[in-house]
Amino acid sequence: MSKLKLNLGPQHPSTHGVLRLILELDGEKIISCEPDVGYLHRGMEKMAEKLTYIQYLPLVDRIDYLAGFFYSELLCRTVEKALEIELSPRVKAIRVLLLELNRIASHLLWIGAFLMDLGAVSPFFYAFREREIILQYFEKISGQRMMNNYFVFGGVRRDIGYLEDVENFLKILPDKVNDYEKLITENPIFLQRTKGKGVLDKKTAFNFAITGVNLRASGVSLDFRKGDYLYKDFEFTPVVLEEGDSWARYKARVMEIRESAKIAAQALEILKREKSIEQTLINPLTLKLPEGEYFQEIEAPRGLASIYVKSTGDSKPYRLKWRTGSYYSVNLLRKILKGAYLNDAIAISGSLDIILPEVDK
Amino acid sequence: MNYLYFLYIEFLAKHNIPQLFGDITFYVIPCCIIFAALLIVVLALVLFERKLLGWFTQRKGPNRVGFWGLLQTLADAFKLLCKENITPKGADRFLFNLAPIIIFVPVMVALGLIPYSSEFTFMNFQTNLLIFIVIGAMPVLSILLAGWASNNKYSLFGAMRSVSQILAYELPIAFVILSVAVLASSLNLSQITLAQSSAKGIFGWFGIPCFIGFVIMFICVIAELNRCPFDLPEAESELICGYNTEYSGMRFAIFYLSEYALLFANALLLAVLFLGGYLSPFGKYLSPMIFPPEIGSILVYFEQAFWLFAKSFLIIFVIIWIRATLPRLAAFDLLKFSWACLLPLSILNLFLMVILKYLTGGGYV
Amino acid sequence: MFKDIKYLILSMLTVFKHLFKKPVTLEYPEKRNIPPENFRGKPVVENCKCCGICTRVCPSGAITIDKENKVFKIDLKKCIFCGNCAYYCPHGAIKMSKEYELGTKEKEALVLNYKIGGADERN
Amino acid sequence: MNWSEFKNIFNDCKLQGEKIVIHSNLLKTIEFVKNNYRFEILKEIIAVDNGDGTTELTYKLFSPEDSEEVLISINVQNEAESISSIFESAIADEKEIFDLFGIRFNGNPELKRLYMPEDWKGHPLKKDYIENDERLKWNE
What pLDDT score does C117 carry? Predict the structure, then answer.
């Protein structure tokens, strides 16, 4: 058996960032795969120990630039819980609306990138066309498309506006998603490439600490939004599918887009009702977290994202650690790619929605 | 053709150039015309594809160079000319340079075979349809050379995949060509075109009786050209550029242009075999009716060429349309699809055509 | 078998439908996108009271104030346009303008110097 | 997860805040918790350098059925038992902690640096990691 060692190297169009997979191949069948990460390591955790909380807040969007709101919400939540600040219903509704729009944008980009991995050219541009509307809305309210730095400890930077843009978007989204379904879901070549490929059963998913859509596509209904204080008065049903292969992960994400659109619509209703925004903003220069350890978690688009802050009472955290979803999906690659062929491997790693800034932190 | 020959000899005799020189150079002129026409058509095809892909995905497509983007491919070709020709360190230098030449030569031959109009055919010998099967197999040789010589694992993968793919899709084409030859009872392309002019307009074409063959040949042509959904050898998202990863500058331009030249040649072949070559879809040619007789009789040839080009561009439009929608096939299913499904279907189609030919008592010519 | 062909045709038609739609792309240099109202472009400073809050709020240390010869420096090579300074400045001296094309030939031009007090001409 | 039953099996542990602090046989404890109380997901391993040469490892276990979470923490010098035999997700976590804190997990199949290049000197997240680059001192 002649072993060929191939570098699915850092510069590769379909690894969504700088991921290097050291593959051992027999012909085109993969014998072993060892992910090698660290090409995008910016030392977020070391930087946290050198910056005060308010200085660290804008950097937090860069941990996962496709879902920046989730990580700034995590940091704001930690400080708010530590200082026992209560959020007014309007601020909560603003946060839920922006989080769900961000989740839709991230899933849309994933659909485009996944189809581009499989070779289809046009869904990429259709998905980006919808995502562009969301990004332009983010630019209107927060000032920048992706690095929005809009959440502040105790509330939001300025009151939300231009709600009619969101209404128009939520009106046109359903039939655009139906377009994707018509174009992709029943496409025989797409089914051939994804049905039964990269099957992830419950046991390995638990063993590799996979959370989020990848886990829900394997039959486990574990959605951390259920226990979240922000989503308390929103009703939604977590998307659960049984097959657990690449196709189920794709289908779960499309259904999740529809689910998020429903939540966003409910958030809009609340925003129309609650007009008054009163938020107790903190003076950032004298912000000192009381001593102790704080754990917070949120359901990010790529799995469970959680933060751990250990503070010794001064203005800079003693230790800050992030847990991100893709970190464990990359680790899963070493098991799920065994025995797959080379071009299936690209499809399987694409279906896990791995984004490298999250892995390297 | 011989009318033009005498004209040419007479012209040379006027400048008292010996007739021997005329005989030799007479066949060089059409080759130059073909080469020039091929370059223009290929440049137009590249732009046509990029514009169409743009419109399919709600983009504008190239529109910066020249009015409405017409000179874009010319600019690309010129840019590639100026780029440096890098040969990778471990590459097998001789084979590395030989590969682009091998891929471009057969295409020129292919274009010479096709009857552009009833008068204007270059190599009109009796079995010029068989040469197309050989033309289909030549690029494999150059892709294998390119993949092996560029000393790059990804290129080697691309070359291996393309060999197995084109091998699998060469056989159904042979059977379908056989079934068309049976229908037209001749292997000469102009004979086949004339055989399709029996009934009035569209109903005479072989596309209708031999529709299964048309679909099979269409799929095999896409597979042979390594175009989506069969573009395993140069799959952008896996093997970056497959066999032509290490090529740069003029050599890459030759690979890139030969891919489109092959696309044009195969589209012409499909048009001739199934869509009635240079016959007009309305049965009669329009130009004699519109223009007075003496101009009309010359214009007829140009109109014939126009119909041939129109049909081949229609086929190319559908190929590009398929590229815009379908994802790529998996390597294993690609081969299974051909051996298990296309090959038996094409044999069945040949069998049907023989029965049809027998039943209609040689109705078609 | 026929179900496959049906869905193939269906996906082909949905792409064909887009052939006649208006392109959504924008030709950048000719037609420009007007940045919205609170867009975070290049920071601009006028009548700063040099209280120093912005230097302590800036995540990348891009702002330096030297009080002796009254010069307010913003180093655009370090600035990440996060808007912290503009948001937390008590006197509203720093504003994020709408200018986003900041490419220059020489590096020094990226360090903006503002005179404090009196007219804020940039040298 | 009833705490009393766990207490009398592993007697040298105490409940500190919401964390169970143990002092030794980490592998057996985690295995016991995983099999008996169905804690099947190891969410993350958090390492904190206490400053006096010891590092505190906190294992966050989660049981998806009754969505309950438990924190088990242990103080180690620079040697620790690897639990990658029970949770394969720990391979990546332990490599990261080895890279950033310098704790050798014996039993981890591929214990090498995760983020930093192979020839990197020092472990960045330890408190005694001194960078001699003046530019990084701007925020003191």
Answer: 66
Encoded tokens for A262: 């429903």
- The domain of B255 spans 83-360
User: pLDDT tens for residues D24-56?
Assistant: 888 888 888 888 888 899 999 999 998 888 899
Residue C27 forms contact with B (CB below 8 Å): yes
pLDDT score of B236: 67
Percent of chain B at pLDDT > 90 equals: 17
**Which chains have 3+ CB pairs within 8 A of A?**
B, C, D
DSSP B92-107: -HHHHHHHHHHHHHHH
3-class SS of residue B299: helix
Contacts of A339 in chain B (CB under 8 A): none
Query: What whole-number distance in Å separates Cα of residue A72 and Cα of residue A56?
Result: 10
In a domain, B45, yes or no: no
**Which of A147, B106, D74 lies closest to C82, judged by CA?**
A147
Does residue A328 contact residue D92 with C-beta atoms inside 8 Å? yes
Q: How many domains is chain B partitioned into structurally?
A: 1
Flag if B56 and C8 touch (Cβ within 8 Å): no
| Nearest Cβ partner for B58 among A125, A187, A342 | A125
By the 10 Å C-beta count (0-12 exposed, 13-18 middle, 19+ buried), A39 is classed as: middle
Among candidate residues B256, B162, B178, B159, the one with its CA nearest the CA of residue B217:
B178
Q: What percent of chain D has pLDDT over 90?
A: 21
pLDDT of residue C121: 45
Domain contains B222: yes
Has residue B64 been placed in a domain?
Answer: no
**Residue B173 structure tokens:** 């084409």
Exposure b/e, B191-218, CB count within 10 A at least 16 = b = bbbbbbbeeeebebbbbebbebbbbbbb
What are the beta bridge partners of residue A156?
A151
**CA-CA-CA-CA torsion for A49, A54, A60, A65, nearest 10 degrees?**
-150
Interface residue A236 vs chain C (CB under 8 A) = no
Number of B/C CB contacts below 8 angstroms equals 33
In a domain, B153, yes or no: yes
Closest residue in C to A132 (Cα–Cα): C24
Q: Is residue B255 within 8 Å of B103, Cβ to Cβ?
A: yes
**C18 part of contact set with chain B, CB < 8 Å:** yes
Please answer yes or no on whether C24 and B56 come within 8 Å at the CB atom: no
A14 touches chain B (CB under 8 A): yes
C111-115 and D14-16: which strand pairing?
Answer: unpaired
Residues 6+ away with beta carbon under 8 Å from A117: A14, A346, A347, A350, B237
